[in-house]
Automatic annotation (TrEMBL):
Tree of life domain: Bacteria
Name this polypeptide is given: DUF3365 domain-containing protein
PROSITE patterns: PROKAR_LIPOPROTEIN (PS51257)
Record bears the keyword Membrane: no
InterPro entries, A to Z: Tll0287-like_dom
Keyword Signal: yes
Species the sequence originates in: Roseiconus lacunae
Length: 204
């Protein structure tokens, strides 16, 4: 895996945190990044670590920004059409996609991630490769399990991890089940259903 300094730094942080060492993020300095720990992290540990950060950020945004505004009856609401609506901010899934798009454009990132679903409201979230289709089938058929594997794209090898994205709150299924973009075969999602997957793709 070809790694830039920033990726090495992130890997070192993730490795140190996942190995259970007591440390704070601010204590993870560049000098630690150059220690041997950076060399020993596996692509799977890297994917698990960045996935944990992504989901934490999404949960914090959904809970402490979107839901908090609703609770306060604030004049600002999360709205799919936030760009054309006054006092509106993006939905958590849109925040997630826009972040993924920025990482995709950043040559220093060294990896990519995306939301995927067998039943996408946004066509951009459809499976793009046979591997992705297999992964989405697997996480739907084995709720709670992640899917890990290797994929070759354009002559390059990637480690790919796909994590289930589940209906954890009523807002998830009520918004999706009533959405005008739902297709003919759209399921009636209920609590804990796997609604899609978060994919992390790391070059090997
Ligand atoms: C207010 C409506 C709303 C709520 C609440 C909501 N979503 Fe979505 N979700 C959307 C929309 C709209 C998209 C497409 C966003 C885009 O354009 O990227 C989407 C995208 C997704 C996707 C990618 C596949 C697709 O359908 O395009 C998944 C998976 C997903 N949401 C799961 C969830 C989960 C899990 C929750 C609860 C934690 C949730 N959503 C809450 C509206 C919602």
């Amino acid at each position: 895996m070809k790694m830039t300094t920033s990726i090495r730094f992130l890997l070192a942080c993730v490795a140190l945190m996942t190995s259970g060492l007591l440390m704070t993020l601010s204590g993870c300095s560049n000098s630690e990044a150059s220690s041997s720990t950076a060399g020993s992290i596996t692509p799977r540990q890297f994917a698990d670590g960045v996935h944990a950060v992504m989901m934490a950020d999404r949960t914090v945004y959904a809970t402490h920004v979107v839901t908090n505004l609703k609770k306060q009856d604030a004049p600002v609401t999360a709205d799919e059409y936030w760009q054309d609506t006054e006092n509106a901010i993006p939905l958590p899934a849109q925040m997630f996609r826009m972040g993924a798009e920025l990482v995709d454009e950043n040559p220093e990132a060294g990896f990519t991630y995306a939301l995927r679903s067998k039943w996408p409201l946004n066509e951009q979230h459809k499976a793009k490769t046979d591997f992705e289709k297999e992964a989405l089938d697997f996480i739907s058929d084995n709720p709670g399990d992640n899917f890990y594997g290797e994929e070759e794209l354009g002559g390059k090898k990637f480690f790919v991890a796909v994590y289930p994205d589940r209906a954890v709150a009523e807002a998830c299924w009520s918004c999706h089940n009533d959405h005008p973009s739902r297709g003919e075969d759209y399921p009636d999602f209920a609590k804990d259903d796997v609604m899609g997957g978060v994919l992390v793709r790391v070059p090997m």
